[in-house]
Amino acid sequence: MGDSDKVEGPILINSPMAGKIASVKISVGATVEEGQALVVLEAMKMENEIAAPKGGTVKEIYVQQGSLAKPGDKLVLIE
């Protein structure tokens, strides 16, 4: 019963800031663990890893390497 703080259901990961997608480290159908890097976002000459907030399966990837992201843009859907 101690799992009440776990994230349930599909999770949409959005871009926290504007930047360029330096790399996509996962593929659709991949199993990911909580904290695993999904996308590397380059902003202000720094690379920021966007990590999975929970484990699950990658259902959709909305960006590709070299594309530009704005704050709030969809990056990855995990289920």
**Major β-sheet profile:** 4 strands, antiparallel
Distance between the termini: 21 Å
Strand content: over 45%
The CATH class assignment is Mainly Beta
Shape label: globular
Structural class: mainly beta
- Please give the order of strands in the largest beta sheet: 1-8-6-3
Helix segment count?
0
Instruction: Give me the CATH superfamily.
Output: RNA polymerase II/Efflux pump adaptor protein, barrel-sandwich hybrid domain
Mean pLDDT: 92
The SSE string, one letter per element, is EEEEEEEE
CATH fold field value: OB fold (Dihydrolipoamide Acetyltransferase, E2P)
SSE topology:
Layout lengths: L10 E4 L4 E6 L6 E2 L4 E7 L2 E6 L4 E6 L6 E2 L4 E5 L1
Antiparallel strand pairs: 1-8, 2-4, 2-7, 3-6, 4-5, 6-8
Main traits of this protein?
8 strands, mainly beta, globular, four-stranded antiparallel β-sheet, 79 residues, OB fold (Dihydrolipoamide Acetyltransferase, E2P)
Describe this protein's structure.
The protein has strands at 11-14, 19-24, 31-32, 37-43, 46-51, 56-61, 68-69, 74-78. The chain has 79 residues and is mostly beta strands. The protein has one domain: OB fold (Dihydrolipoamide Acetyltransferase, E2P) (Beta Barrel). The strands form 2 sheets. A 4-stranded antiparallel sheet has the order 1-8-6-3, with no helix packed on it. Strands 5-4-2-7 form a 4-stranded antiparallel sheet, with no helix packed on it.
